[in-house]
Every structure is written in C-alpha cells, then in structure tokens.
Write a structure and sequence with these properties.
This protein is an alpha+beta fold. The protein folds into two domains: about 120 residues, D-Ala-D-Ala carboxypeptidase, C-terminal domain (Peptidoglycan synthesis regulatory factor (PBP3), Domain 2), CATH 2.60.410.10; about 250 residues, DD-peptidase/beta-lactamase superfamily (Beta-lactamase, 3-Layer(aba) Sandwich). The chain is about 25% helix and about 30% strand. It has nine helices and 19 strands. The protein has a seven-stranded mixed β-sheet, with no helix packed on it. Strands 4-3-11-10-9 form a five-stranded antiparallel β-sheet, with helices on both faces. Strand 13 and strand 14 form a beta hairpin. Helix 1 packs across helix 4, helix 3 packs across helix 4 and helix 4 packs across helix 5. The radius of gyration is 26 Å and the shape is globular.
C-alpha cells in the first residue's frame, strides 16, 4: 500500500516552532568562424513566480544548496558554449591532479599546435615550458586557447582524444547533453552544451575541487611580461561574486557562467547569446540580484527531526521514525508560508528488519511560486525483526484484520 500524507504550510509542518522553517542568515550587501546570429528576441524566462523578461538567448539560475531552478529560458537547448566549455577542460585537469596523475608544479612543454592556436591566448612561446598551475591560471583568467591545448595534449596525447575523454567524463558527472570536439570551445557544429549542463558543471567544480576554485576569483595574471585581466565582469562589481567563466564567439554571442555567494546562500547563473560585453555584465547582475531579492532559503526540518512515524510489520517496534538525515532546506519566494505544500510518500507498513539510514520514502515540496523539490527520507533507528514465536500473534492479527 502506498501511503500519502499532505502537510500544510503552517500547521502540519509545525512552522511556528522555533526549530523549523528558519530563514538562512541574511546576505551581506585562422579556423572559419560562423556568421553572427540574429539579435536575441527578448522573450521572457520562466520562473516559479512568473515570467521574467531577459534579452539573453538562454538562461538558467539555480540555487546551489537546494538545486531549485529559479529561472529557465531554453536551459536545455544545445548551444555553442564558446570558452565557457573551458570549465570542462579545467575540471578534467583538476581530476588528473586529484588522481595523482598530474602535479600543479609539473612543467609541460608547449607544442607547435598549441603555439599556433588563435583566439584568446596566454602567449606561450613554442618549445617553452610552463607549470600546470600557471597553465591553469592561463586558462581560467586569460582564457588562453594555447594553454588549453598544452594541457589537453599532455593528458590525452592529442586535443581530439582529450575532447572524446571529457565528453565521457561529462556524462559521468551529469552533463547529459554536452558534446566536446576540442579543449577550447573553438567553433565546431558538434561542440555543444546546455545552460543547465554548465550550471551542473559549475557546481561540480566548486564541490569537487574547492582547493582550486580560488583561481576563478583572481583578478589578473601576468605571463610573458603581459598582464591580462580576468574577463568575468562581475568580479569586484557584484557583492559575493567569486567565479567562473565567460565565453564569446560570433555564433554563440556573449555568455557567462557565474557564481555569487552571500551569507550561506550561493546562486549559479548561466546566460548565453547576449549581444555585447556590456549587456552580458548588466544582464547577469540584474538576474542575480532578482534571485537574491525574490527568494529565500529556509530550513524546514533539522537533521534529526522526526518527520513522520512509519508503521513496521513484524518489528520489535511498531513504528520507525522517518527523518531527513540532514537539514531539509527549501528555496521559497517571499510570502512562501501561504503557499508551501509538502507531501510525504512511503510504503507502509515497512517490513522488519529496518536499518538506520535506510531510505524509506521521499518528501515532495511544491506550491504556488515554490520551486519543486524531492528529497529522500530515511529510517531514524534500527528495528529488529520479531522472533518466530513473537511473530505468530502479529501474523494472525493481520490475517483476521484482512491485511496482506
């Protein structure tokens, strides 16, 4: 039997209790190029609280902690990512470092192919060497195509082989719609990513490689007596901005994958297809400010709070507590208390034995203006199975009562 329990926004959730539904702390203030695309149409992005106008061709705005999508405009359309795909190149480099196959102080040699790369450059000299750390800064801060090729050739032997490798790696980390044909984002009709995949990738970089994420906030880098500024227009301009990567080609327009952290809350924004550098910076800032202004993160349950008592069949206890196992946090709009709904789903009764931490159900959060979320729920205690003699009355009782 599948049991469903509806919990009201204020009564059933116990939101008046001080331990529940607390707001998070407030934030403190030579290769051919395709033809230029038509200007963005200005059609709105969709949000849980209604459409939001934007001139960007594609947008996704995601809450880092809860995964809630706050804005979506063509977020799942495969588009050219330009240099934003260098995020995947650097994720692969950091994975190699973590696995011990590459060291940040390791010197790599600049090949003829890397030296000849067009577009944005670190200005590496042919036959010279540079450390993996300096090459990483060259990719992240200077968007150096030459640095990308040096790293790709060392890891996989060729840039083409590297592109095949990172396509497979992307699938492993949840990039369901991304295909890479090079290490740089150089225009290729088959080199495609979605805004949602870029947001997923940004989160994976921050979570999986926190020790290297600091490179993305560095404002400039000097190599070969040439100082280049970080192209991210939000650094030093938007409170809490700390990375990630810009992109631009004639086909892709101007794009940005950005992360902003204020207090305990972080948002990830991906915008693409903007007509100018200025529009990229202004539109990204406007949409991020909208996300922080219109939504809050609230704690619905603490890690050990009992959300529901679930019946147990043939157990030494008649019920087992259902818990979240961690803080259950929801991203909700202002005025959320009037619209939030939560539904618990689980099979009942649960057959004994039950192991503490065993997944037993899920909590579905929804409501008008509330980004939908589904969270697993776990057994909060062990429940041993009754012995053979003790089980007889319980089995007989269920037979008499018509249970199965």
């Amino acid at each position: 039997m599948f049991r469903r329990a509806m919990i009201g926004a204020s009564a059933g959730l116990g939101l008046a209790a001080p331990a529940l539904a607390q707001n998070r702390p407030a934030a403190q203030p030579q290769r051919p190029q395709p033809a230029r695309p038509a200007a963005p149409t200005g059609t709105p992005a969709q949000s849980p609280i209604g459409p939001v106008d934007t001139i960007a061709r594609s947008v996704v705005l995601v809450d880092f902690e809860t995964g809630a999508t706050l804005l979506n405009k063509q977020a799942d359309e495969r588009l050219p990512p330009a240099s934003m795909s260098k995020l995947m190149t650097m994720y692969a480099v950091f994975e190699q470092v973590k696995a011990g196959r590459l060291r940040m102080d390791q010197q790599l040699t600049v090949s003829e192919a890397a030296w000849r790369m067009g577009g944005s450059k670190m200005f590496l000299e042919r036959g010279s060497t540079a450390s993996v750390e300096d090459l990483s800064r060259g990719v992240i801060i200077q968007s150096g195509n030459d640095a990308c090729v040096v790293l790709a050739e060392h890891i996989s032997g060729s840039e083409r082989a590297f592109a095949e490798m990172i396509t497979g790696l992307g699938r492993q980390i949840g990039l369901t719609s991304s295909t890479f044909r090079n290490a740089t984002g150089w225009p290729d009709p088959e080199h495609r990513m979605t805004a949602r995949d870029l947001a997923t990738l940004a989160r994976r970089i921050i979570v999986d490689h926190a020790e290297h994420y600091r490179f993305y906030s560095e404002r400039s880098f000097r190599w070969n007596n040439i100082t280049q500024e970080n192209r991210n227009p939000l650094l030093g301009r938007v409170a809490g901005a700390d990375g990630l990567k810009t992109g631009h080609t004639e086909e892709a327009g101007y794009g940005l994958t950005a992360s902003v952290k204020r207090g305990e809350r972080r948002l990830i924004l991906v915008v693409g297809g903007l007509p100018t550098m200025r529009a990229r910076g202004e539109e990204a800032e406007r949409l991020l400010e909208w996300g922080f202004r219109e939504f809050d993160n609230v704690v619905l349950f603490r890690a050990a709070d009992t959300i529901e008592e679930v019946p147990v069949h043939l157990g030494e206890r008649r019920t087992v507590p259902l818990i979240g196992g961690r803080e259950v946090v929801a991203t909700v709009p202002r005025g959320w208390r009037e619209s939030l709904q939560a539904r618990i789903r689980y099979e009942a009764p649960v057959p004994a034995p039950v192991v503490k931490g065993q997944e037993l159900g899920r909590l579905e959060i929804s409501g008008r203006g509330v980004p939908p979320m589904t969270l697993p729920l776990y057994a909060g205690a062990d429940v041993e199975r009754l012995g053979l003699i003790a089980r007889i009355p319980a089995v007989v009782g269920r037979m008499i009562g018509g249970g199965t």
